[in-house]
Design brief:
The protein is 39% helix and 22% strand. With 584 residues, it is α/β, with parallel strands linked by helices. The structure holds adenosine-5'-triphosphate and magnesium ion. Magnesium ion binds at residues 329-330, 405, 427.
């Protein structure tokens, strides 16, 4: 204890003259502490306990390695013998942990989100601080960056605590700090789920219903979290909308948006359209966009298929990636767009921003909703939809047009753009060429069949079972070769097929893309195959070196575009040598 502190006690100590005796010194220190505690109890009887535990990183890790959580968040024991722990891992150490349990009786997995436990008193202090903060957060709050918000909150909590003269155990202070940051900067109750890298989607189906998540390892599983208060859930959904810069209310109860961090949000308000109360679905943003390397790593495509896509993209072959919900269409689209040559002008259009490209010559566009009443055409004032964006994009003279997902009349314009020499990429909900054509030809798209031949490739993606695993696979790569006027039939050629039984991709023996390139560049068949093999090797190299950073991949693709011979030589040499260094 420093000399300057508690000067009265210090006097007491020196009056006994025991500066040189350690034992008696500690005795005195104890006495001082005791009398201080006595004094404390008198002035503030409800204050926290006298035991202070150092919150050192090491202490937490030691605790954690025993699977018990941390000093701040203890993982509760399970007494029920029918419940087995399948997994425990930290999300934000040392605060939040996920435990996945398996109930042998109900054969059900549950994901528990374990956060710091608060006593009743701590909880009411937290609520007091939250109420005060809510009242004092000024209009400038929204303008602060996340980092500044964190700092601002820490300061506010400190000054609140100081102004009330409460003394709080450092551990409790940390817990309170966690909840304040979670609720003011993060996404409240759902925040820890959003921070968990293993989770793809989070969905709330209504009041009092457990939240469900789609977990990378356990797929769709129930969580221990739920919104049990209807008003709280309603205001949560409104706040979620505000995060996306959109409004959700009784008069416009459906919302689609993207949060500033890039999470895709779909929500409905109250019992207007969903009978079990407000709902929301959050698709977590992947900071690192999906790349061709991951497609190969996860077995979604083979290196040869990626090389085929590369040749297709470079040669301006338009494609639609079709598949079911969450089959990974957008991820595949983003991956193959990496092959767009560096100088080409790209315009992307999406309802919610998901596509992320390293290219400089790129205009990312997003639709916006309008305000007020709908007019006779069902449009709101100021609304910019996909149709407007696609039309506008044509005047931006792009080489490549990417439409996140097509479903309405914008598709027709996209096909016109294809027919006039633009290369377009898009995704669509359909599980086969047949059902895709069906959707394209019927309202609201109404695309004439003859126009469909402007589309060169259809990639069919699926979510399927291989053994016990649920996997994403490119089921088919199909070329649209032409149109037979007599029968009014589209002529297609399947280039790659996926065999579910063996989980292998099969080349069907012919590609019209290869024919086209051979003709354009006057290559012999062998020269064409050599070019194809070179690209396949580059893809294999990237997979071998685990290059998943999209900028690094892009740099390598660019170096191939600049100097094919040099790049392929280096790549093949490094593959042979097993050299680990990476770069372009
Ligand atoms: N090939 C893949 N392998 C493993 N996970 C993937 C793959 N592709 C996508 N994912 C994951 O699956 C989720 C859904 O992916 P994505 O958004 O690409 O699907 P989608 O088909 O476009 O969905 P939607 O129909 O909602 O537009 C994401 O969380 C993504 O990280
Ligand atoms: Mg998508």
């Amino acid at each position: 204890m420093a000399e300057g502190d508690h000067s009265n006690d210090a006097e007491e100590v020196s009056s006994k003259g025991l500066a040189d005796d350690f034992q008696s010194e500690s005795k005195v220190t104890n006495r001082i502490r005791d009398s201080y505690l006595k004094f404390l109890r008198k002035v503030a009887p409800n204050r926290a306990s006298r035991v202070r535990i150092p919150v050192g990183e090491i202490a937490q890790r030691v605790e954690w390695s025993k699977g018990r959580g941390s000093l701040i968040t203890e993982i509760p024991k399970i007494d029920d013998p029918s419940i087995e722990v399948a997994d425990i891992y930290p999300v934000v150490e040392p605060y939040s942990f996920v435990r996945v349990t398996f109930n042998k009786e109900s054969s059900e997995y549950i994901l528990e989100m374990i956060e710091p436990a608060l006593t009743e008193k701590e909880e009411s202090l937290l609520n007091l601080i939250k109420d005060t903060l809510k009242r004092t957060l000024g209009y400038e709050w929204d303008k602060l960056t996340e980092l500044d918000k964190g700092e601002y909150l820490t300061e506010s909590v400190e000054s609140y605590i100081k102004s009330r003269g409460v003394r709080i155990d450092p551990l409790v202070r940390k817990k309170i700090g966690y909840y304040i940051a979670r609720d003011f900067v993060g996404y409240g109750k759902v925040d820890a789920l959003i921070k968990d890298e293993n989770i793809e989607d989070i969905s709330c189906d209504g009041v009092g219903i457990p939240l469900f998540v789609f977990h990378r390892k356990y797929e769709s599983i129930k969580t221990s979290l739920s919104f049990n208060d209807e008003d709280l859930l309603n205001s949560y959904v409104v706040a979620l909308g505000q995060r996306c810069g959109k409004q959700i209310s009784v008069s416009s109860p459906i919302l689609d948006g993207t949060t500033p961090e890039g999470h895709r949000v779909q929500a409905t308000y109250s019992r207007e359209v969903t009978t079990r109360g407000s709902t929301f679905t959050i698709r977590r943003f992947k900071e690192k966009p999906f790349t061709p390397v991951e497609l190969v790593k996860y077995g979604t495509a083979s290196p040869e298929m990626i090389a085929y896509f590369w040749l297709g993209v470079e040669n301006g072959e338009s494609a639609i990636i079709a598949g079911g919900t969450a089959s990974g269409k957008t991820a595949t689209l983003n991956s193959i767009a990496l092959f767009i040559p560096p100088g080409a002008k790209i315009v992307t259009m999406e309802d919610t921003r998901e596509i992320n490209l390293p290219h400089d010559n790129w205009i990312p566009g997003a639709t916006r909703s309008g305000v007020g009443e709908r007019d006779a055409n069902g449009r709101l004032a100021g609304e910019i939809d996909m149709y407007d964006l696609v039309r506008a994009s044509l005047r931006q003279r792009p080489n490549y047009i990417i439409v996140g997902e097509v479903r309405g009349k914008e598709t027709y314009i996209m096909f016109q753009a294809m027919a006039t020499g633009h290369t377009t990429y898009s995704t669509m909900h359909a599980d086969s060429v047949k059902s895709m054509v069906n959707r394209l030809e019927n309202p609201p798209i109404n695309c004439p069949r003859i126009l469909l031949t402007a589309l060169r490739n259809v990639v069919i993606q699926t979510h399927a079972r291989v053994g016990t695993d649920l996997v994403r696979r490119i089921k088919q790569v199909i070329e649209i070769v032409g149109f037979e006027p007599e029968t009014n039939e589209l002529i297609t050629n399947t280039v790659y097929d996926w065999d579910q039984a063996t989980d292998r991709f099969i080349y069907k023996g012919h590609s019209f893309l290869f024919d086209k390139i051979m003709e354009m560049k006057s290559l012999t068949h062998d020269e064409m195959m050599e070019e194809f093999n070179r690209r396949t090797d580059i893809v294999k190299y990237m997979v071998q070196k685990d290059i998943t950073d999209h900028r690094k991949i892009w740099a390598l693709i660019n170096s191939y575009y600049k100097d094919q011979e040099k790049t392929i030589k280096r790549v093949r040499r490094e593959m042979e040598e097993g050299v680990t260094q990476v770069g372009a």
